[in-house]
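User: What would this chain look like folded?
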Amino acid sequence: MSNAKLMTPLFYQGNFNAGGKKMRAILVREVSNGTDTYRLWRRDGKPDRQYPQGEGDDYILYVELHGYLATLRTTDYYLIDRCGYQAMVAAMYGDEDKREQYFDGLRRSGGDDAVLEALRQEKQLIRELGRDPAHQADYIKAILDGHVSTYLESRESGGETFPDFIGALILGELPTCRELSAIYKDKCREKSREQKAKADAEDRTYCRERNRQAQQQVQDAIRTIREGGVLQNDTVEFYRSRYDSSACSIFLYLMRRYQVDVPLRTQGWINNKLAAATIADGRCSHLQFWGHGRNRASRRFVDCMNKLTRAVLAEQENVCGTSGSPPS
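Assistant: Here's the prediction, encoded as structure tokens.
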């Protein structure tokens, strides 16, 4: 028969349990260092951890405080390991620096085998000391003192920092903590809005500058077609947002802009083979493309390029009333 009891968790679904929801919990044990005494609980039913690392690693531990169960965010397995490690270091070396010095000397004098043996001895002592109720009580006391410090910092700042409900529970100030929590959440939302507005402004500036550069690239390409010269098959890229853009060959962009129909096969040749095109006397006079010498230029591309050239020159004639050099 289960010895579970209905207890009140401090948090329910990640928030303060204002409604007083209950959960079935089982008392694990009571630990004390002679001054501080804590009753440790775990949830009844399905384990919290699907893949435990060892015995006692399947349920999260709770500590009973003033009628509530506050999570320790650790399992019994890791509670033993963590408080046992601290006690082991103090017992064997005195502090972390001396432990590091000891292992540095051990690596030089004894090699890997000596290091592994020292680690084995440490592990054995960690499990032994970690099961000591006094060491566990000391470890839990340090955790709870940290919660109190976090809450006091929030109380002194008027909600500028995170108000810790566990710390408030220990001090019997849950109503005050709820008020601070509302203030803190409002400040976080306001800060988030400000950060988003700043990020949006930076994104708009970024996109505006990139699109200005792309437009300049397009105008330079159109000028090359009008006046003649070598047009490199560079990529032109326009941004809708910082992480949303469209890029394509400058030739394909201009052909779409001037409604020159380009077969898919020719589009592939432009993307994969074309390096540059020379425009002279209103026509495409020379091509540079990648590949072996026996590879042939795309005649269809030349036709499309001449159509593009005529369209660009016709646009100039319509705007300026002057004509460029017509292709023969």
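DSSP finds nine helices and twelve strands in the chain. If you want, I can go into more detail on any region.
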